[in-house]
Structure to design on (260 residues):
């Protein structure tokens, strides 16, 4: 048997009894991430803007496994409080930020300043301050932690289906992740990003022209869109001990739509 591996090898190695925050936990991908984390023995603090949304997605989990917190992440002053809630279960080990909003505008001339600000405030500004707050909590606790951010295929393509402003924010996530990885790597915090392609979620399908969806699916070598669980497994790997020498990376999970 190879040295360092046991017969009980698991993808979520190192996560048992760890405290992990999942922001955007009420969405399809977020809920799938919570599920795999709980299965790996982690305690999850699930955050979303609506408690109703959280209850619908995660109400089946026992409070001993999942703590639900309703919060608008644009209120950056509340980020420390979220982390304090998570730390009741132990020192913060992980943050997964998949909270995002998308407003499609078929014609770029229809994008308003409010559209731009709303998407960047949630998708980029809040992401930076939440990641920084989490990393500082890990630094103070001496935790060799993990942070996973969410970009999109749009960071590379510029976006499809009226999502230019969204794609611009997701491009910022890639650069932000790299900068934070350089900043916090010396204190043992790994920070990576996931860039999904099409995933079967409410956000993807909202206001998306069916012809655009079909065209993107045809352009994807695997010939289909992903299920949220297929993204959740990648996130679990990045949080686990198996990704201990990966930081500053953006993992392409697009079924071959992108190849880099």
């Amino acid at each position: 048997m190879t040295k360092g591996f046991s017969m009980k090898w698991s993808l979520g190695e190192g996560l048992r009894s760890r405290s992990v925050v999942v922001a955007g936990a009420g969405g399809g991908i977020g809920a799938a991430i919570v599920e795999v984390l709980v299965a790996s023995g982690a305690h999850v603090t699930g955050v979303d803007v609506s408690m109703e949304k959280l209850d619908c997605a995660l109400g089946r989990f026992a409070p001993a496994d999942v703590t639900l917190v309703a919060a608008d992440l644009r209120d950056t002053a509340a980020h420390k409080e979220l982390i304090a809630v998570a730390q009741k279960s132990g020192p913060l080990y992980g943050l997964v930020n998949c909270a995002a909003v998308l407003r499609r505008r078929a014609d770029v001339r229809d994008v308003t300043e409010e559209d731009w600000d709303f998407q960047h405030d949630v998708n980029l500004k809040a992401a930076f301050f939440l990641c920084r707050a989490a990393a500082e909590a890990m630094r103070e606790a001496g935790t060799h932690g993990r942070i996973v951010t969410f970009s999109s295929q749009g960071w590379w393509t510029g976006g499809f289906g009226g999502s230019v402003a969204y794609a611009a924010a997701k491009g910022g996530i890639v650069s932000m992740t790299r900068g934070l990885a350089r900043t916090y790597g010396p204190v043992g915090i790994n920070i990576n990003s996931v860039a999904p392609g099409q995933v079967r979620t409410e956000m993807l399908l909202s206001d998306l022209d069916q012809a655009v969806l079909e065209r993107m699916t045809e352009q994807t070598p695997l010939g289909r869109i992903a299920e949220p669980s297929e993204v959740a497994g990648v996130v679990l790997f990045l949080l686990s001990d198996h990704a201990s020498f990966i930081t500053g990376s953006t993992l392409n999970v697009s079924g071959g739509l992108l190849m880099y």
About this structure: Residues 19-253 form a domain with the Rossmann fold fold (CATH 3.40.50.720).
